[in-house]
Design brief:
alpha/beta, D-Maltodextrin-Binding Protein, domain 2, 3 domains, ten-stranded mixed β-sheet, 12 strands, DNA binding, LysR_HTH_N, LysR_subst-bd, Hydrogen peroxide-inducible genes activator, WH_DNA-bd_sf
Length: 299
């Protein structure tokens, strides 16, 4: 008896539709026309004899079985991609395509230093970068959308292997007018929780900062403002409060041309560990370890 199996292309179409929730955007992501993508998903439904997607004029809704098949499709696609990864891993190191997510509190401060070295020493590496919050990046790693993630620990990213790169101290940033003669370090007890500006939920730096202070009331009283450190620094520069910054941001000049000063936070836990993480047992583990060495040396 002849058995007809779904194609990887059909599975890609289905996963793209789930991710984008819209036939047009999914088709753009797959570099095909909308009619091609729609026909491919209909062929898949006909092949397995069930409806996976309920189509209306306004909404694309997956059936419960459709959701389960999408999860399985992600794993199948990831396994297929790892076949190519195995071949690349057997060839030249750090060559071919690699998709890396980087969190926003690292990307603008670290990437400008590391990318020139990567391009110079590994010209055959095609590195596709995506900036996204830690939770989204880790989810993408688990479902195969991303190959590795450059993030800050501690953070529960699932079943991953991790290579720490370096420790990044936390600094307290404040208007210079608040402390004309600031001490060498700032103690958590001296931070006014009603004036503390932090990144919104989803950024692990907020959690690292609160954990370093060991003051639960800070989380409840702090004003959660902004999606970027640059925005919060401008608010501090205008006298609206104080914030916490990673050392890499301070060294990269985020306070240049402002009237904001920064001093290290005096705490036993006032650090975050920058690390590269990837899925456990990945066939490209050797590449990721080599990439981690390059990142650590260039940082």
């Amino acid at each position: 008896m002849t058995t007809y199996l779904p194609t990887l292309k059909q599975l890609h179409y289905l996963v793209a539709l789930k991710d984008h929730g819209h036939f047009g955007r999914a088709a753009e992501a797959c570099f095909v026309t909308q009619s091609t993508l729609s026909a491919g998903i209909r062929e898949l439904e006909t092949l397995i004899g069930v409806t996976l997607v309920e189509r209306t004029r306004r909404v694309v809704r997956f059936t419960p079985l459709g959701d389960r098949i999408v999860d399985k499709a992600r794993r199948v696609i990831r396994e297929a991609e790892e076949l190519g990864d195995m071949a690349r891993a057997a060839g030249r190191p750090l060559s071919g395509e690699m998709r890396m997510s980087v969190i926003p509190t690292i990307a603008p401060f670290m990437l400008p230093r590391i990318l020139p070295a990567l391009r110079r020493d590994y010209p055959d590496l095609k590195l596709f970068l995506r900036e996204e919050t830690t939770g989204v990046a880790c989810e993408g790693l688990q479902n195969g959308r991303t190959d590795c993630v450059l993030l800050a620990l501690p953070y529960a990213c699932g079943e991953v292997a991790a290579q720490p790169l370096f420790d990044d101290r936390l600094f307290v940033a404040f208007p210079q007018a608040d402390l004309p003669d600031p001490p060498p370090t700032i103690h958590a007890a001296d931070i006014d929780e009603t004036r503390l500006l932090l990144l919104e939920d989803g950024h692990c730096l907020k959690d690292h900062a609160l954990a370093a202070c060991n003051r639960p009331e800070l989380g409840a009283q702090a004003m959660m403002l902004g999606t970027s450190l640059h925005t919060i620094v401008q608010m501090v520069d205008n006298g609206l409060g104080v914030t916490m910054l990673p050392e890499m941001a301070v060294e990269a000049g985020i306070l240049d041309h402002t009237k904001v000063s920064a001093r290290p936070l005096a705490s036993d836990h006032a650090i975050r560990t920058v690390a590269l993480v990837w899925r456990r047992a990945s066939p490209r583990e050797r590449d990721f370890k080599l990439l981690a060495e390059v990142l650590a040396a260039s940082a």
